[in-house]
Amino acid sequence: MFTSRTRTAVITGTLTLTAALLGAAPAGATPTAAQDPVAAQAVPTVGVSVVNTYNNRCLTAMGTFSGASAQLWDCTGEARQKWTVNWVYTPLGGYYELRNSASGLCLDADDNTIGSNGTRAQVWECLGTGQKNQHWRFEPATNQADVYRLRSRYNGRCLDGEYQQLGGNGGRVQLWDCYGDGQVNQLWKVA
Q: Domain of life of the organism in this record (predicted)?
């Protein structure tokens, strides 16, 4: 025989378990540390620069139209080098979109070349939670504060400054197999 207190505990436990299994999150929710370990690290979110640690150049949108390339340029503080980092709800948790301040477009892995190393990074219309090639996981680098690898949800590859073009402005940004903290062209400071 169930008492009122027992029924309440069973219902509450069932609802909690159901929400956990379904990964339910109310609209406008922000991630918790359990959903997203990176959220606990306080990644800056509005008007940030994403700076390649190899050459200290900023991730820059080269236009305000879908398909404009992302490149590395000297950091000048202009809007095309500023990004808003928005948490994206996914069943796996821990993913973000990067929305460019000048255009409102999202950092995007070109789906025409996404199957291999060298996938072109560009900006594109933000298409929401179903657009895996616009979702990025911020993976903290070991022993380096505020430094991350940005891993694509679509193919697991990392945002990468093309090594042969890192010497000057206009360096290509692409996706490449992730190689860890020693591969500094895949490490990004967010500030």
A: Bacteria
User: Which of 4-8, 142-146, 181-185 is predicted least confidently?
Assistant: 4-8
Q: Cα 60 vs. chain centroid, distance in angstroms?
A: 15
Least confident residue range of 33-47, 71-85, 146-160? 33-47
| pLDDT above 70 for 53 | yes
Structural domains in the chain plus CATH codes: 44-190 (2.80.10.50)
Angle at CA 152, nearest 5°, toward 148 and 154? 165
**How long, in residues, is the chain?**
191
Nearest CA to 156 among 123, 106, 109?
Answer: 109
Q: How far apart are CA 3 and CA 10, in angstroms?
A: 11
